[in-house]
Design brief:
five-stranded mixed beta sheet; 99 residues; 3 helices
Length: 99
């Protein structure tokens, strides 16, 4: 299962927040996720929140993928916090959850 959080334009920001709430509800129902793609609000706090929220649900050998990782240090800080391998390519980061 792939779970993707994306923030749309400010004009539909409330819709985006509702979609994110539904994703977190879905996450609790799914139990496990193969790939999580972060493409929403790129503040340090929000990125860490999403990574920390989804990490317990990522399957072994599953991935967190995030774009625009150079906007702040959240991606690298999180990868170090969970002591996991990560790769960066053209501003997109991938963290693999070890088996």
């Amino acid at each position: 299962m792939v779970l993707w959080c994306q923030k749309k334009s400010e004009a539909i920001g409330n819709l985006s927040l509702e979609i994110q709430k539904q994703n977190y509800q879905l996450l609790s129902e799914l139990k496990q996720v193969d790939i999580f793609f972060h493409d929403s609000l790129h503040t340090y706090e929000h990125m860490m929140f999403e990574f920390e929220t989804v990490w317990p649900h990522i399957k072994e050998n599953g991935l967190i993928v995030s774009d625009d990782i150079y906007w702040n240090n959240a991606f690298i800080d999180f990868a170090k916090k969970v002591n996991s391998q990560y790769t960066i390519f053209d501003g997109i980061g991938i963290i693999k959850k070890a088996s």
